[in-house]
Design brief:
Tetracycline Repressor, domain 2, transcription regulation, 2 domains, 0% strand, transcription
Length: 194
Amino acid sequence: MEALLVGAERAFAERGFHGASIGYICQCAGRTTGAFYSNYDSKLKLFLDVFRRHGDRTADYIGERIAHVDTGRDLAPQLARIFAGIFSGEHLDARWVFIHLEFRMMALRDHEAATALVDHENWFSGRIGTMLDALFERAGHRPALTGTELAALLGAMTRGIKLDRAIYAVGGVADPLSSDQMAKALEGLFRSVM
């Protein structure tokens, strides 16, 4: 099962959801199509497992950084640096921007994909939101937004900024927002809700 997930992640990253055939996924995994069908009844279900693994890694990365926030100091610049790093792509594989966008477009036309995407977004925002709520509680803050609401906002911002950055890169144009500028803007956002 692990080999299938690793192979599928590679295949989806290289060719996208629609471009990665079950045969190519199995080739990347070093498994037969029988191995695929003994574990999954659709490519969508395999993709969702891969998508969830990617979400787990991202949430773990954010959680490690939030755990090191010093609650005795101003939270806004510390949180701003964490999320500016994510916006800048210091952690997230840029190929996932395209995979995520492709999946979002598919979800506009496919009820099963839309339901799965909403469930994933709610799970992810809830997981990050729980971390933020715990941090705010430790620091004695009562923010205007819940951690989950703030996580949903940050997730939408991340997707938009990463998409724009990818387009600038393909076009050979310098990104108009530096990491420092993003950190300043995020610091203002965090201050406005805390």
